Amino acid sequence: xxxxxxxxxxxxxxxxxxxxxxxxxxxxxxxxxxxxxxxxxxxxxxxxxxxxxxxxxxxxxxxxxxxxxxxxxxxxxxxxxxxxxxxxxxxxxxxxxxxxxxxxxxxxxxxxxxxxxxxxxxxxxxxxxxxxxxxxxxxx
Amino acid sequence: xxxxxxxxxxxxxxxxxxxxxxxxxxxxxxxxxxxxxxxxxxxxxxxxxxxxxxxxxxxxxxxxxxxxxxxxxxxxxxxxxxxxxxxxxxxxxxxxxxxxxxxxxxxxxxxxxxxxxxxxxxxxxxxxxxxxxxxxxxxxxxxxxxxxxxxxxxxxxxxxxxxxxxxxxxxxxxxxxxxxxxxxxxxxxxxxxxxxxxxxxxxxxxxxxxxxxxxxxxxxxxxxxxxxxxxxxxxxxxxxxxxxxxxxxxxxxxxxxxxxxxxxxxxxxxxxxxxxxxxxxxxxxxxxxxxxxxx
Lengths: 140, 295
What we know:
Strand content of chain B: 15-25%
Distance between the termini of chain A: 20 Å
Number of strands of chain A: 5
Strand order of the largest sheet of chain A: 3-2-1-4-5
Radius of gyration of chain B: 18 Å
Number of helices of chain B: 10
Largest sheet of chain A: 5 strands, mixed
Structural class of chain A: alpha+beta
Structural class of chain B: alpha/beta
Order of helices and strands of chain B: EEEHHEHEHEHHHEHEHH
Oligomer: heterodimer
Radius of gyration of chain A: 14 Å
Number of helices of chain A: 7
Largest sheet of chain B: 8 strands, mixed
């Protein structure tokens, strides 16, 4: 299973920020959103389609607009190169009939940026193997 | 080198329904048994372009795909600007039959996907004497959860939101170019049209108490892809168990839009169904009645 730790999040940040489409489709995507992998939660600061900062020291004064929370097992399936049925998409995981992902907060912001957000999350499937990730410095 | 030309020909037919004459666009190709194709919610007949052009299909079938009013090139009725559009089972099923009547189609096969699949149940219940067979793709008796306000909201880009909300319904194995082409169709629906169709799909279409009222006189082929999280294979199978004269085909490696997301894989599953329908043509009427809910 993927670690979903700081190094993994930084590797995802690199994939997002090196993606050539996101500055175009995410030009107006500027918000702070929460993403939760089981108990482990991060606040992701997005500015114009780029992940500017990831914060794992969350407190009552950490503002976020919307939150995506799911069990680690669900995210592990979601992030596979070829995800299995019902885990290939956040709406698949959030659908009332399946229910493993919970969406909270100001979901208008999520819907306003849904194209860039889903594109951003799909980049999780391109994170290199653990050995490569471990070579990189932790920035969270 | 000569240009590639497709066999599809488009046309407009005026369809009278409940005192109003709707101007309806359709595309067709081929000859033989009429095969009327129904697009999914919020889109139009372009979804069926591969099947229209496939010589293995159109050599025996006159393939016809039409745009429902408010979709594609079929204009909305006068006064649409003062209404909130909500598709109902009554309008949808009766309009399909009105289109077939306007086109003078004799005992067509009707093949629809998603909301076009769900409506096949209503056609089986109410119009069994007028159809030859039904191919209900990604269909079940109840598919809640999709009547979502954000799909028609002035603060949200309708094209991007509608299209992106369905992207994950397609299998990751389906080719990127066809998946994004499907996304493109979804990005082009009129404001509120996808949501209005979803009123039928997720609210008005509740067939759970009606499944066993279908006589079984018309064969129904349920075809569902394993990546469809709106209508899962289990939901289709549960429905089909209760529907007489039905057969269920679960399709691997494909999602909610088989005809447009992966026409090659869909064809592998569709051709045996079409061959059964062709074979039944030589039998006396009600050839499918003995099929009996097998899976």
